[in-house]
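Q: Hi! First time doing this. I have a protein sequence and I read that you can turn it into a structure. Is that right? Here it is:
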Amino acid sequence: MVLNEYKSLGIDICPNVWFSTEWFCPDGVEGLGVPFYLNSPKLMKYFESIGVLVEGKTSIERKKLFRHELAHVTDNVFGLRRFKKRQALFGLASERYPEYFYPKRSLTKGRSSFSHIDSFYWQSHPCEDFAETLSFVVENWSKIEGHCEDPKIEYIKELINSGEAFTDKKKLSLKKTEIESIKMDKRSVDEYIKEYFSQVNVDNRRKIFSASGEHSLEDINLEKKPWAKQDPWILDNFRQIITYQKNYLGRKAIVSKKSKRMIETGNESFLKSFDLNKVYM
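A: Yes, that's right. Below is the predicted 3D structure, encoded as structure tokens:
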């Protein structure tokens, strides 16, 4: 059990867990929300079939996401964001959360040995960087030696080894309020789906398709393109709009000859014009 990974390292947290619309840990709460669809394999399968991103569809994914949210809970319970060294290494927690971000390849390469949920989500915000780094250390504690070149990982190791930050005296008295509980959400499943696609701006992304085009995007082996390995989030976005176009709208995923060439070469300005190199939060 993932929670026991934290407890075995002296991080004693006892979070409340509730169903919501997504994975998240609210500030100032000892608890976390998980997506309601995880309670229904049938709903998960349907969502995935129409292009809704299903987070936690496998046991491995669920463990990683739960471990990540427990890192946020740990941050809340022990007030770690107040530590000056933490702020210097990761940045300020008060920084505004973005609706989306553009992962930077140079930063991904700079932490090539570091990956938890994926290799780029940590770039989105200082708190996500901290949560991903703590998650990585917790998951790999028995084999963590050899990452000394990463000062953020070394800092987390120091916190755990000293144990001073995780004593009962350092615990904050936090509520376990169920923020944005699915029990309070009156939307239908169809309404949820429409709002989800609006949030990730899928209509702008699907403008890449052309009714008069000649080439099926499904026939292009996107996984083998040079950009797919270094920019996996773009590949994910392509998969989503193909599924949305085909299975939700019932239309063909056809592109023009020019678009096909731009896609195959991974033309940055072309992909950016359709939001295909964005990662939505």
